[in-house]
Amino acid sequence: MGLEEKLPSGILLTTVEKVAGYARKSSVWPATFGLACCAMELISTGGPRHDLARFGMERASNTPRQADLMIVAGRVSQKMAPVLRQIYDQMAEPKWVISMGVCASSGGMFNNYAIVQGVDHVVPVDIYLPGCPPRPEMLLDAILKLHDKIQNMKLGVNREHEVEDLEQARLRRLPLAAGLGSHPGSPGPGSPGPGTSAPGVAR
Amino acid sequence: MTSRTDAGAEGRVYNVGGQDWDEVVAAADEAGDRPGDERLIVNMGPQHPSTHGVLRLVLTLDAETVTELRPVIGYLHTGIEKNMEFRTWTQGVTFCTRMDYLSPLFNETAFCLATERLLGITDRIPERASVLRVLMMELNRISSHLMAIATFGLELGATTVLLNGLREREKVLDLFELITGLRMNHAYIRPGGVSQDLPPGAIEKIREFLGLMPGLLGDMRKLLDANPAYLARTKGIAFLDLAGCMTLGVTGPVLRSTGLPWDLRKSQPYCGYETYEFDVPVQTTCDAYGRYLVRMDEMDQSLRIIGQCTDRLAGPGTDDDRVMIADAKIGWPAQLALGPDGLGNSPEHIKHIMGQSMEALIHHFKLVTEGFRVPAGQAYAAIESPRGELGCHAVSDGGTRPYRVHFRDPSFTNLQALPAMCEGGMIADVIAAVASTDPVMGGVDR
Amino acid sequence: MTAEQPPGQAQPPDQAALAGQERLSEQVARTGMFGTETTGDTSGYGGLIVRRPPPLSSPRPYGWYFDDLADALGSSLDQSGLPFGEAVERVVADRGELTCYVRREHLTAVAGRLRDDPALAFELCTGVSGVHYPADVGRELHAVYHLVSLTHNRRLRLEVSVPDSDPHVPTMVRVYPTCDWHERETWDFFGIIFDGHPALTRIEMPDDWKGHPQRKDYPLGGIPVEYRGATVPPPDERRAYE
Fold this sequence. Notes:
The complex is a heterotrimer of chains A (203), B (446) and C (242).
Chain A: H1 11-26, E1 30-31, H2 37-45, E2 69-73, H3 81-90, E3 96-100, H4 102-106, E4 127-129, H5 136-151, H6 156-172
Helix pairs in contact in A: 1-5, 2-5
Chain B: E1 2-5, E2 12-15, H1 21-31, E3 39-44, E4 56-62, E5 65-72, H2 80-84, H3 89-96, H4 104-119, H5 127-156, H6 159-180, E6 189-190, E7 193-194, H7 202-224, H8 228-234, H9 242-248, H10 253-256, H11 264-267, H12 288-314, E8 336-339, E9 342-345, H13 347-356, H14 358-369, E10 377-385, E11 388-396, E12 404-408, H15 410-416, H16 418-422, H17 427-437, H18 441-445
Antiparallel strand pairs in B: 1-2, 3-4, 4-5, 6-7, 8-9, 10-11, 11-12
Helix pairs in contact in B: 3-4, 4-5, 5-6, 5-12, 5-17, 6-7, 7-12, 12-17, 13-14
Chain C: H1 13-25, E1 27-31, E2 49-52, H2 66-79, H3 84-87, E3 88-94, E4 97-102, H4 107-116, E5 124-132, E6 141-149, E7 154-162, E8 168-170, H5 179-190, E9 193-195, E10 225-227, E11 230-232
Parallel strand pairs in C: 4-7, 8-9
Antiparallel strand pairs in C: 1-2, 3-4, 5-6, 6-7, 10-11
């Protein structure tokens, strides 16, 4: 992912992590992926009352190549799912996904043949935001949680260790245990699978 | 991707699956009979900046001129109509409201009018409920037109218009939240009436809104009406005259921009529209600018109607100030009230059904679990939504669930007219044409 | 009651028996009382069979403007050499709406008269949609057209019934071009083939989808809803209180 990934662990890397996290979270550029009703609330979040520009996010990049964040806002139909994946693939690392609304998170009220029951069938999701549609304030809350996650994301060797730890914790966790939900440092789209442990993996 | 030559088709038929754009272009070039041409096939969408949702346009360009435009839809198909067959008639409202998501109250009204016609209770709907329906529909018309004009500005590159429109729209959404509890997808209008009456303070807020809006709309007009850049991009663009509209089945502001004052609120009134004073704005230029003017004028007329509704609601009450039909076998029983833990069943209602009346308990139980039975038959109720004629064709087999519901959505039909509006024009005018048609893909794909 | 009849009989037994026979031959409209087929229902109402006679024509006068409309259509069709009774199977006037059930071979002729005759003047067709009645054997698929006359401010519904085994309906695109996308949608969702349509392809579902989703024999396709420790079946498999 860049020079910062190649640094050895230690104080230097920790400082770089903090700086990189701060820089990344301060100017997240969303990719416009408004699909249905949630898109209207997404647009309202960019409007004057709930201002997305205060986070530097009003510049929604229409091309996914320049986008960091894909907010999947709305129901994803079977016809749209390959397009969704294609847009996600075109985004450059690091990238995050918020699934906005219940339809994106789980299929919502449309439990039928036409809707993908949750975009996590198609793309890895960082933050799930329920609501039908979620208010702009709820979307801002989700974005702030994502900013926390980005700020605290570790880099390089630290990241691999963190990911391995989290994988082990998830595998050991019992089904009805408390504390479900995404940790700030939980594996996001940039994590390697359980089998890979090569250092400096290019993600 | 497969392709075949079909004797009945007007050309080669390409079946596209995805990830095969190269094949499409190669096959089209191969099949083309004009070699050495400057023809380019461009794909716009389904994800593209024009915020009209997931619409895909396949354009064949000859330099800057569009020679062919093929809209591809279906990227938001949700199966709402089939889903409604597995829910009761009242629950159907929550599904149909999410179709055309910019005008949810219109979807609800069309469905409820069809259901009420099947039930035969159209003249037993309380008057207050009808006035509330008209009030909410006109507020929704304003918010929908504001979004249409805001996104029109965004697509033409005028972000100020977008922000102005969104700011105004927030005021309408505040009113929705006050009255129905939600900003969007309200499920407020139900078969038999509306779900709850106006909360205290609503009339004052609406009057405040009515005081502000003419000034704000005037500001938007000052920004756009005589703006040379705006006029250059919308005058004479996306021309569709009356014959074209009738052939392609186009209704709504697009039809009224051709000079024909066809508005279902005037010609085939519903919900008591014949008792309100308002005009039907009409332009004769048949272009995108005419449609913009029609929408701005419609917003002024909506403000007039809202003023009349507010006077009726605030005025001396009639004997009947129910908002749901009196028939206990049909009218939704739950009375909502705001308590310390949020919106829920009102304590009086709970006391009534648990302590005072066995019939009320049974009605509540049956209506919530089963729903009311609708006699067999079919009905088609059409209303004038911000985009045109929104019709609901409901078929009942005598049960508690719809047998089949089909919505004739105006955006679906208006989008068919897009090739007629755009072919022969410039590619930049395609954006203006789509925006002036104001399609909402949720309604198109359902 | 005449002197010949034995006392205690309300009517001659033949009539009662006849009425009973007629009822038994009517279509079954509904079975069971609560819609559940599980052992939870101990009421005994599960064996209930409700029969309803098949739809008939509405008797004249239809009321409102429907009589004028039917007469005008009749005379227009007669003028073009097509008897009304041959083109239109039956007419139903119900809940303020007039429905003409048209035979499919005469559909375009009827539509042409409706559009062109000045007394009828149905300029606008708001589209076609399908309804699937699997119980109506031999006439399972219905294509429903809604027409609007702006000149006379009237509405009319045309309905065409075709069997599943031969789901062909002539296209209306030559008469009302707006039906283009609507016919594609009806083909997509019901499998009704509109003969003569320029490009009858899928419009809402992906191009390579198999099946016609809004037919009654096509499942809703939902998945069980997962909760912690339990699942709820999808909406079409849940117990329904009907």
